[in-house]
Amino acid sequence: MSNKAIILIGGPSKGTRFRPLSLDIPKLLFPIAGKAMIYHHIEACSKIPNMSEILLLGFFQENQLSSFIESATKQFKIPIKYINEVKMLGTAGGLYHYRETILQNQPENIFVLHSDICCSFPLGDLLRFHLENQRICTIMGTQVSKEYANQYGCLVRDENTLELLHYAEKPETFVSNLINCGIYCFKSQFFDQIGKTMNDIKAQQQLQLQQQQQNLIEYPEIIRKGTATENLRLEQDIFVPLAGTDSISVYLYNGFWRQIKNAGSSVYCQDLYFKHYREHKPEILKSGENIIGDVIIDPTATIDPTAKIGPDVYIGPNVKVGKGVRIVHSIILDSSEIKDHACILYSIIGWSSSVGPWARIEGIPNYTPFLYKEDKRKGITIFGSGAQACGEVIVYNCIVMPHKQLDRNYTNEILL
Ligand code: GTP
């Protein structure tokens, strides 16, 4: 039995809410808990027996991903390949267009993972469930509180047969608090189903076109908007019509899960990974006199012994941290410098940035699960790469564009 995994990585046009950090690096490579966002996915895939290949499907320039792919391939000893989608084909359109590559060597089980999620990736349990239930597709679902459910794909499952009865993508009214996690397991026959759906949509569009030409449609605005037929969405175009046809099972996952939509959400996701590491891989967390809670520090960083770090802090390669510095719930990226007695809370300090002595850089945490609805009064403070804060300034709940110099205090602003 052979298995394969595909990670849907999108492309530059999909990472806009991740700015200013996605200006320097594709969103999927941004470090969360010290590892690239999709490293966590790849690590989980690598633990599945007989995983023959991991494919990254998206529309980034190949050279932006090549060194990551090379080093992950070496580390996990599994072929990792990039499929460069010619144009944005949608979450199902790309899978179908490249089906021959995906189905090469006849994998029996095909995992498909969204790149912009964080969880414990229980792929082994998902696979066991998928094999037991024998449907052509299994969706991993999790329960969220009722008030946030309609911001996600909502699932209704039959509690006896575990079949997906109904799927509603971001419904206007409450449907269910069981939501789609963006992790699936397919049998190869699922690709035939995508093909059938695509043909149905084509036929429907053809009919609409003919009717339009004959002026038979009074309200042309109801026609499915401006998509080439190849652009297909897994959720709306495939799961919605397939629900209730005994084709899809829903696996219930009870662990942590978050979407990583905007840059600030990586701080919350990092906290979740750290908690997971504390239970499952405590050896990768740093300990020491001035280390509080869960912290990862790259071995090439220089930290003054009087600096107090943590909880929930990642410090990247070649960072310098001065005397008496305090850092809490933050991500400090490569080659930045945090000078003496500066204080950083709930912030991301971008690559090669600097924070002057006695400066205070602070965000306001917002722990709601629905992280990408912007609430302007709350947010992680983010420094784009090369930003500089002078000594003693206070920067509170701000987004700072790359290379900006801050020589006074700022609150609740986007600093261009
Ligand atoms: P939004 O609320 O609009 O973000 O919807 P969503 O949370 O359902 O996410 P979306 O469907 O946009 O993306 C889910 C995953 O698929 C992400 O990891 C995207 O990067 C990826 N993705 C989205 N569109 C495409 C596409 O056309 N091609 C590929 N290869 N990946 C895509």
Automatic annotation (TrEMBL):
Q: Keywords assigned by UniProt? A: Nucleotidyltransferase, Transferase
Q: Nucleotidyl transferase domain spans which residues?
A: 4-204
Pfam families of this UniProt entry?
GMPPB_C (PF25087), NTP_transferase (PF00483)
- Record CDD domains: M1P_guanylylT_A_like_N
Mannose-1-phosphate guanyltransferase C-terminal domain ranges (all copies) = 291-414
Tell me if Nucleotidyltransferase is a UniProt keyword of this record: yes
Q: Which SUPFAM superfamilies match?
A: Nucleotide-diphospho-sugar transferases
Name the InterPro entries on file.
GMPPB_C, Hexapep_transf_CS, Mannose-1P_guanyltransferase, NTP_transferase_dom, Nucleotide-diphossugar_trans
Q: A GO molecular function for this record? A: nucleotidyltransferase activity
- Spell out the family assignment given in the record's similarity comment: Belongs to the transferase hexapeptide repeat family.
Question: Under what name is this protein listed?
Answer: Mannose-1-phosphate guanylyltransferase
Q: Which organism is this entry from? A: Tieghemostelium lacteum (Slime mold)
